[in-house]
Amino acid sequence: MGIEQTLLPTPERWLARSCPDDPVFFFCPVRLQQVARRFREGFPGLVTYAVKANPAPEVLDGLVAAGVRAFDVASPAEMALVRRHCPDAVLHYHNPVRSEAEIEAGIEQGCVSWSVDRMRELDKLARLPRGTEVAVRLKLPVTGAAYDFGAKFGAEPGLAVALLRRVAEMGFTPSLTFHPGTQCRTAAPWARYIHTAAEIAREAGVALCRLNVGGGFPSDRGEGRPELETIFDTISGAARAAFESPPQLVCEPGRGLCAEALMLALRVKTVEEEAVFVNDGIYGGMAEWRDLGPMGRLRVVRPDGLPRGGALRARIVFGPTCDSLDRLPEPVVLPEAIREDDYIVFEGMGAYSRALVTGFNGYGARRIVRMTAGC
Ligand SMILES: *Cc1c(COP(=O)(O)O)cnc(C)c1O
Q: Would you indicate the residue range of the signal peptide (predicted)?
């Protein structure tokens, strides 16, 4: 899975020259830097990166180059990966269910913050050094995200109070954490969570060291540039309003930080009246389409690199494998005149795309081309 470099200014030019028959990701370091700067300058606290959204070496290196030093990791393999790219990285182990062997690995790798959402898992952390930060993961029935993150992890407010007291009794540094759900287009879920977090801390009689407001920051899937600064302002305003002395704030974006950094180009294998077959699908870089709905930022490019224009029509898009589930859930509006060997270029594909590619049936996007001259 090596990385190629190109000085060509656009994916179109590279596609016209290389005519790849496999799906190709294009990595744009400039865009990654720009988004990282928006977070680091705008977020009122510590910015950590949720590695699972895109663990590609070039993304990790790009974020380290942009000054990101803290990472949300969920497994020993992610810890080791981050340490390889940033030996002095600050690791937050925010997967609240861990085997004993995973706890051992987290201690060995020097994780400084651990989340919990149930008593049994907190008891398992008893051997961590006193003073270690343990953040209680809260969940609320909030709406506004593309799908609900509370369905698996998180303690309801009553349990969160009990956990927070116990964390303090065990001699750990008490914090709270939540994840409002991925792809939140408005700031409302954060405001609601922060307000409840303050109530929980008061009821527990525990002063929070930090409040981690999770990921969930949106990317542009066709609705326009996300209003990150509005969300940042709401978060800092809500924390000031809810707490007498606000805890330090932390965020752990995955999608919001890395989505803009990659584009994905697929090749059309055949065109029918009602359908097109392309060379990657839901077992590859298009996996999220099922859960998040359509990605509206696409363009069709002829083999010579020029845009395929003209009238539009919706067609079913099938992926390349022999599994009939391998199709996008809803028809996609494409130029009527789309042809075999055209390319479909999707923007904003940096998050949960390359990370979810499987090799099922021998397919899957493996190549990354780095655009060194902008995008
Ligand atoms: C997945 C995850 C994130 C990142 O979520 P995004 O919606 O991609 O920002 C952050 N924190 C935790 C604990 C996660 O599981």
A: none
What is the distance in A from the centroid of ligand 1 to the CA of 98?
Answer: 17
CA–CA gap between residue 136 and residue 117 (Å, rounded):
6
CB 15 within 8 A of CB 301: yes
Q: Which of 48, 149, 257, 354 to mutate to test the pocket of ligand 1 (most atoms within 8 A of CB)?
A: 149
Domains in the chain with CATH codes: 3-27+259-371 (2.40.37.10), 55-253 (3.20.20.10)
How confident is the model at residue 149, as a pLDDT?
Answer: 66
Instruction: Kindly tell me if the per-residue pLDDT of 147 is higher than 80.
Output: no
Indicate which atom in ligand 1 lies nearest the CA of residue 53. Answer: 8
Other Cβ atoms less than 10 A from the Cβ of 287: the count is 19
User: Is 50's C-beta closer than 6 angstroms to any atom of ligand 1?
Assistant: yes
In the annotation, is 322 catalytic?
A: yes
Report whether residue 246 contacts ligand 1, using a CB cutoff of 6 Å: no
DSSP string over 40-77:
HHHSSSEEEEEGGG---HHHHHHHHHTT--EEEE-SHH
Residue 148: count other Cβ atoms within 10 Å of its Cβ. Answer: 16
CB atoms closer than 10 angstroms to residue 333: 13
pTM over 0.85: yes
The Å distance, Cα 2 to ligand 1 centre, comes to: 27
Q: Best of 39, 72, 114 to mutate for ligand 1, by most ligand atoms within 8 A of CB? A: 72
Using a 10 angstrom Cβ sphere, with 0-12 exposed, 13-18 middle and 19 or more buried, the burial of residue 310 is: exposed
Which helix (H) or strand (E) covers residue 190, if one does?
Answer: helix 188-204
CA angle, residues 189, 190, 191, in degrees to nearest 5:
95
Q: Tell me the pLDDT tens digit for each residue of 287-314.
A: 999 999 999 999 999 999 999 999 999 9
139 Cβ below 6 A of ligand 1: no
Is pLDDT at 148 greater than 70 in this prediction? no
Instruction: Please check whether residue 292 is in contact with residue 183, taking contact to mean a CB–CB distance below 8 angstroms.
Output: yes
Catalytic residue selected from 19, 251, 322, 375: 322
Please check whether residue 361 is in contact with residue 284, taking contact to mean a CB–CB distance below 8 angstroms.
no
